Description:
Chain A is an alpha/beta fold. Chain A has 14 helices and 15 strands. In chain A, the strands form four sheets. The first copy, chain A, has a seven-stranded mixed β-sheet, with helices on both faces.
Amino acid sequence: MQEDIKASQSNIMTSTDTISFELEQSALQARRNAKWNQYDAGVIPAFVADMDFAVAAPIQAAIERIVRERDYGYPLRNGERADRFVAHAFVRRMKSRYGWEVSPDLVMPLADLVQGTYALILAFSEPRDGVILQTPNYPPFRETIQTTERQLLALPMRDDGSRHVFDMAELQKLVDQRTRIFVLCNPQNPTGRVFSRDELLALGEFAIAHDLIVISDEIHSDLVFPGQQHIPLASLGPEIAARTVTLNSATKSFNIPGLRCALMAFGTEALRNRFHKRIPLKLTGSANIVGVDATVAAWDECQPWLDAVMEHLLKARNRVKDVLAAEAPEIRFHAPEATYLAWLDCSKLGLSTSAFQFFLNHARIGFSAGETFDPDCAQFVRLNFATSMPILDEILDRMITATRQHHR
Amino acid sequence: MQEDIKASQSNIMTSTDTISFELEQSALQARRNAKWNQYDAGVIPAFVADMDFAVAAPIQAAIERIVRERDYGYPLRNGERADRFVAHAFVRRMKSRYGWEVSPDLVMPLADLVQGTYALILAFSEPRDGVILQTPNYPPFRETIQTTERQLLALPMRDDGSRHVFDMAELQKLVDQRTRIFVLCNPQNPTGRVFSRDELLALGEFAIAHDLIVISDEIHSDLVFPGQQHIPLASLGPEIAARTVTLNSATKSFNIPGLRCALMAFGTEALRNRFHKRIPLKLTGSANIVGVDATVAAWDECQPWLDAVMEHLLKARNRVKDVLAAEAPEIRFHAPEATYLAWLDCSKLGLSTSAFQFFLNHARIGFSAGETFDPDCAQFVRLNFATSMPILDEILDRMITATRQHHR
């Protein structure tokens, strides 16, 4: 196993003309991460949002420098605390990618986005207040709303036949006097929607009209396919920004979730101050130097790597789409506009168990279970297609075989 | 500079018979940490609690393994989440060192102890409630009490002529109906006291009598000099444990503060549940894998390194004591029973500025300023003596020269 890793890494190291990131299955199986150790060796994991890729060279170099220098003390970077260093990198990235001007003073460090969601819901609402969440959605967001004893107001993503859309009519019916927060996930997980300017403006106006805070999880914003454009909600104007807290992190797009580094950006100083009255800055902890240096390297230096990854992900997405359409058309699927996640509706298969359990038992694939995204979605699974083409083809083959045997 | 680091690191790597950790000044100056970059190059830093030492080989090996495998995904260790892995290491360490049995289910991850203090004060008190803090004390603890709008009840460490002791008589006068919390720092920073069983039992009885929660910061517990024994407060019995939350971390004794990994251990399930009603588990974030693996390596494998470091620190402490007694007896100093921190009373020098400012200007040493530990202590400085003997001797020489010139 160790030799496999070395071999595949030396391939990475020596490829100078192209950016290489795919890893052999043997190297993946040697990893100690959750993805490749949750199930027994016969199961191909396709669940947790790790990519089966090696990180970009500048990230590796930044981490190797810390390790080579054995410099694990209280960190400074450019004469500032490490959390300021990463805040400035976020500001640069938002400006260069979206023309969105964020003040670094409004950017605070977090370990992860779930922590940010807890902090924001606790700061901006009281128990039994309403929190709107589009469903299906990332399971920890559901859990956050329930654990904090807020009322989860589920706004279903409406399937318009070709994609999932923002259901403004339904939203109007949901809101009441005790509704305080809208949790936006854009690009949306698991449907992969990149909300349009019109959808976001409608949400913004709605939030203003009903005095809602919007928690805007934009962690998938780097993973948008050609033809779509991510728009940070807070960039739509000062009135919307004044009630928006943006959550972001390089961990998803640059494949470093174990390093724990995320940020929240408040739209205004007033909003930040209101937050800090309930949640003091240091209650959410401090940034670790490995996460900080890796994140700054990711945002400042790793776009070529991400471009190469996105080319691969586009091919992988289209492979899923084409193969399923040809070989298992009963599985309904709108190709995502962003993310490496495919939300597969298996309800026409007529399964007697959840779709997750069916594919685990009969195809030996570990998908994410649809019911964790929405209790009504037990006939859905989420497929993580951020893997090499041979592994993806094996996943698709196994799905098709299991589906055919079921129908026989 | 780079070459210096490599040279001193290869010295470390090749020393097999003895444990070597001292670093040359040139290697230290090449570091990017706060300690060696806060001041200009002419100033010797002796403030922030970083040791000028290379980390232990097993810590370095654990980090290098992650980096070599490029395994930065959502981590598992022994089939469990990373925070459980480090919780189990803490449980093993407490049992082997102190015979203290902690349930791993009562151990929660943190980024750092300041975060833990915020979380605990917010969970177990209301604004304007009283929080007792022994003074002088770690500046962030003062800040925590003030930021959360609690009332800081200062309990001075009483100087009995040979050391600082727990002032129970004063404590009786301080407490009132709105007192909720006692923040214990044991071993105490900056005085270096290791509280005796009798002192701790008296505190425990007092806490029971007045229904106080005790936040017991034990981060310096690994740094106890011969002749003293650290006793975890919660190990004194179930009644005391039922109101004690212990904070600890390997970052201080094993010199990895930039990696951000700490723990809090609740004395009982009831106490933990009471805490989580106010502060949900995930609000405090999640553990990063580098901090986790480094901490587990520290606690499980690095005691020989720490023993060697403690031998050095004992010599360094005695050097400070002997040199000051001989050459600058106006500086009053009780040698600490633990920590690598010397709390120096310079009030007999008759300075016209703070002692911190005097030594920064006239000796080019960057101490920690006494007034940040207690507004009344501007004539104190805290000296961090965890450095090589040549650097320590240079610090002492500069102090003595400046002191003599001042008196001339």
